[in-house]
Amino acid sequence: MKLGMFYGKVETYESDFAWLKKHGFDAVIGSDDLDFLAAARRAGIDGWSCLGTFNPPDDAPEHLCVDIEGKPRQWFFSGCPNNPEVREYALARYRTAASRVDAAGVFCDGTRFASPASGLEAFCTCFCKHCAQKAQTLGYDFEKIRKGVTEMYLRLRNGEPFISASDIDGVKEWLAFRANVITDFIGRISGIVRSKGKLFGGFFFTPGLSRLVGQDYRAIAGDMDIISPMLYRNFNEKGAIAPINTELHALASWAPGQNPNWVFEISGLSGQRIEKIDDLLMYGVSESAVKLETARTRSLIGKEKKLAPIIWWKDLNILQTVQEVKNGGADGVQIFIFTEESKKFLESLLQDGNNKLEFSVEK
Ligand SMILES: [Zn+2]
């Protein structure tokens, strides 16, 4: 995959795919729909299914994560990664997706625990009985984790920066437990997808944020064929889940009186300079942060693994952002998301014959 497009429309594909092909796209990532995958194949483009991972099978509250006060918390349409019914439902969907003849492969999304943008209460999960049991099986002291996360929650709610929580007893174990659970589950879905002869890809938080949600690049690299950190750098919508700038904005918002630059220190993106928290929404993080996060992913996953970050289309400097992905050592790039609006935007950009969205890597 050199140039991929995340396909966000539900209607006819033929003319869209012809347009994408004409502009050099060799992959579309989208639904598990048979027509979508067949149309991609007819257009000579690789079609990939993308599945959310921990979507619960129904809206029963017992599938959801549980916060420190015992309340169910939904995050990113997801249930608890340790809930047996949620897990079985995921495995069944991955089995189905991997058996589609026209699919080049399957991407996993949301394979993690809750992130800061889902809210402080959801972030400080999960304390359900299944997590307690899993922690015990894996040798973690769940009560220590519960105490540590409770203290962390109270500190963050009182406006202290997250970095002050890193020395709390139990928080490190909480993060390690999250990573352990996610690494294990990625191994399971990878096994399902690859056993059907399909490639396995995944969308992940960038290295600066991934440890907060249980995604450990080093640990999962062996199970992946394509790794795609989500490098949406300038998503101007408060509370949006996954873009670097909105996740950092959520973290910074819990500590309103603090210098907002502390979130760059914790995410390893020092050098960004903002005056106030909302500048994170207005301006996002720089193109050079995209290069840095790409390079950090590369160093974590090794030279051989395919790396194709996904970037946000509404970026007036999108050509430079693509260049920075290249400079960071990626093999390809994907764009989120193909709609009538983004198509128009890209079309106007590409009208100038000097502008090209191409991704060739000289090795
Ligand atoms: Zn749980």
What does this structure look like?
The protein has 15 helices and eleven strands. With 363 residues, it is an alpha/beta fold. It has a single domain (3-351), classed as TIM Barrel (Alpha-Beta Barrel), CATH 3.20.20. Helix 1 (14-22) links the parallel strand 1 (3-7) and strand 2. The chain starts with a strand and ends in a 12-residue tail after the last helix. The structure holds zinc ion. Zinc ion binds at residues 65, 80, 82, 126, 128, 130-131.
What is the helix/strand order? EHEHEEEHEHHHHEHHEHHHHEEHEH
Query: What number of structural domains do the residues give?
Result: 1
What is the third-level CATH name, the topology?
TIM Barrel
Shape: globular
- Helix content range of the residues, please? 40-55%
Strand content: 5-15%
Spatial strand order of the main sheet:
9-8-7-6-3-2-1-11-10
Residue-averaged pLDDT, rounded? Answer: 95
Biggest sheet character: 9 strands, parallel
Secondary structure tally, helices: 15
Radius of gyration: 20 Å
Instruction: Quickly name the level 1 CATH class.
Output: Alpha Beta
Helix- and strand-based class? alpha/beta
How far apart are the first and last residues' alpha carbons, in Å?
16 Å
CATH superfamily caption: Glycosidases
- Named at the architecture level, the CATH assignment is Alpha-Beta Barrel
**In total, how many beta strands?**
11
Oligomer: single chain
Bound molecules: zinc ion
Topology:
Layout (H helix, E strand, L loop, with lengths): L2 E5 L6 H9 L4 E4 L3 H10 L2 E7 L12 E2 L5 E2 L10 H15 L4 E7 L10 H4 L5 H10 L3 H16 L13 H25 L3 E6 L2 H7 L3 H4 L5 E4 L14 H10 L8 H6 L11 H4 L4 H15 L4 E2 L2 E3 L5 H10 L5 E6 L1 H12 L12
Parallel strand pairs: 1-2, 1-11, 2-3, 3-6, 6-7, 7-8, 8-9, 10-11
Antiparallel strand pairs: 4-5
Helix pairs in contact: 3-7, 6-7, 13-14
Zinc ion (ZN) binds next to helix 5.
